[in-house]
Amino acid sequence: MEITKKTVLVTGGGSGIGYATAKLLSEKGNKVIITGRDAQKLEKAANELGVNYIVGDVTSTESVNGLVAKLESEYGDLSVLINNAGVGFVYKLGEGANAFDKARQEFETNYFAPVRLTEALLPLLKKQPEAGIVNITSNVAFHPLVVLPTYSDAKTALHSHSVSLRLTLSSDTNIKVFEVMPSLINTDATKDMGGEQHGLPPEVAAEEIYNGIIKDQYEIFVGEAGRQHADYFNDPKAAISKFNQGLY
């Protein structure tokens, strides 16, 4: 899929992978719009990147409706949606973990939000000669990490949804569905996970996303995720044990 001179929406574009991806795609000659909840942070990022921005909360029905209406009226050539916004809690399951409330927040942002926004934007994407949906999941989408238990659940759900959506849209549309599965990336959101010490720069993820899209690589692995994926399908029990070594 060509990704130049296209109009691209990046959710959670104010920092991390979203920021780095918006920067790279803008440099490649695309018109980029970033969206997020923090108006001040978003405006600062947009000014730094020289891109457009729309303040919005992808977990809010009212906000999403407003975002879609603005895109339809001002960006009618939107052809790429990158569902990047995410949230995760580092904890372990067990008594007093408050897993339900944590899971609800994680599913609202990591699963329900991209499902809703994608469906709402399908009519606009279908109008384009070529379009793409990019869902950012994780290496925990194919095997769980015990210190990110319900985050793993949400990313697994988005992985499954991405597969179903890809197959469905391939039958009668020009919309391609990509899934990006990064290993640990150094972002503000991964500080509690050791991202500063062990994570890859978000620019690495952005490069892999861009290269994967232009190669029609529908499952894009970043960092150790490719090897971890191969290990899992070779020996699931051993791979999960290795992935969670020393954590339980």
From TrEMBL:
InterPro entries for this protein: NAD(P)-bd_dom_sf, SDR_fam
UniProt keywords, alphabetically: Oxidoreductase
GO MF terms held by the record: oxidoreductase activity
Source taxon at top rank: Bacteria
SUPFAM superfamilies according to UniProt: NAD(P)-binding Rossmann-fold domains
Pfam families for the chain: adh_short
GO cellular component: a single term: membrane
Family statement: Belongs to the short-chain dehydrogenases/reductases (SDR) family.
Official protein name in the record: SDR family NAD(P)-dependent oxidoreductase
Organism field: Mucilaginibacter achroorhodeus
Source species taxonomy: Bacteria, Pseudomonadati, Bacteroidota, Sphingobacteriia, Sphingobacteriales
